[in-house]
Design goal:
Elements lengths: L1 E6 L3 E8 L3 E2 L3 E4 L5 H9 L8 E6 L2 E3 L4 E3 L11 H9 L3 E5 H12 L7 E7 L3 E7 L2 E2 L38 H4 L1 H12 L5 H9 L3 H25 L3 E4 L7 H14 L8 E4 L6 H23 L1
Parallel strand pairs: 1-5, 5-8, 9-12, 12-13
Antiparallel strand pairs: 1-2, 2-3, 2-4, 6-7, 9-10, 10-11
Bound molecules: zinc ion (ZN).
């Protein structure tokens, strides 16, 4: 059994995961964001004795070498050797991954991506996270940033619009991440129309044919699908699994697919879009799958040593 955690900026959810993804009773607690020792204790207190390992899904950038996480919403983790400290405290292996990769693994193994050898998972929330799962295994890359498609320069080639040079949390200017999530849509609408509206109101206006909302969503589609076409041409997935509240709007999902279709190299074989189906425990299940894989790797390394 893996003890898996979904760690967000306000709540920590924890559950015991058996086998293919059966989650036992979930516990939810407040996230200590300023006190590192309190954070360690909050996690350690939830771990049952019979857990083989801990899997943590955290919204942030994971450094696999340092075993640390840079999470904007949990500043106490900054620069701390989280993996080693937890291992020392609990005496069990600890595996860290980020929320997008956990989401991708859960959907590839237990959700909409089942049966697909090449799964692209996208989550337009605050930013626009992503994960690539090939033959059931997460593509991490050398530094675990594989799949972070949002952190490259945005462009608007179809509309030819000049984009604002906003600074991204990663330090670069004008990343797709700044435009692609729900907050990005709202920011873009503020930039174009000077209106402070929620993403849902903007999409309602778009469906109703309001001119300001039509302009905003048109530019949004141009920016997001330009970057997405690059990603699809590179990865060549057979399915794109979408999560996050923004994609509950079926008209937007349809418009994203159409715009992507026009801009990829092989439109006849365009990947289909599917909404995420694992549900609220996807980060916990994904963290457990990730940990199980890493445990197997550790065992095979020990056996061949
Ligand atoms: Zn960035």
């Amino acid at each position: 059994m893996i003890c898996a955690f979904d760690i967000g900026g306000s709540k920590i959810a924890c559950g015991s995961v058996e086998g293919a993804g059966d989650v036992g009773a979930c516990v939810r607690i407040e996230t200590p964001t300023r006190d590192y020792q309190a954070f360690l204790s909050a996690v350690a207190d939830q771990v049952p004795n019979d857990a083989r390992a801990l899997g943590l899904s955290i919204a942030g950038l994971v450094d696999p070498n340092q075993g640390s996480v840079r999470a904007a919403n949990i500043p106490c983790l900054s620069g701390k050797p989280l993996r080693d400290d937890l291992t020392g405290l609990i005496g069990k292996p600890v595996f860290l991954t980020n929320d997008a990769k956990a989401f991708g693994l859960a959907e590839a193994h237990n959700g909409a991506g089942v049966g697909h050898s090449s799964v692209l998972a996208l989550i337009p929330r605050t930013g626009i996270g992503g994960a690539i799962v090939l033959d059931g295994r997460i593509l991490e890359g050398r530094t675990m940033v594989a799949g972070e498609w949002g952190h490259g320069p945005a462009g608007a080639m179809r509309t030819g619009k000049v984009l604002p040079r906003w600074t991204c949390g990663c330090g670069e200017i004008g990343c797709v991440d700044l435009f692609g999530g729900a907050r990005g849509l709202e920011r873009l609408h503020g930039f174009l129309a000077g209106e402070d509206k929620s993403s849902f109101d903007i999409l309602d206006g778009w469906c109703a044919g309001e001119s300001a909302a039509l302009d905003t969503v048109d530019l949004y589609l141009d920016i997001v699908c330009g970057a997405l076409a690059n990603l699809v041409n590179t990865v060549d997935p057979s399915i794109i699994v979408l999560g996050g509240g923004l994609v509950s709007d079926t008209s937007l999902v349809s418009a994203l697919h159409t715009e992507m279709w026009f801009r990829i190299l092989a439109p006849k074989h365009a990947p289909r879009f599917a909404k995420a189906s694992v549900g609220a425990n996807s980060a916990i299940i994904g963290a457990a799958i990730f940990s199980r894989e890493r445990l197997s790797l550790l065992k095979s390394e020990v056996n061949t040593a």
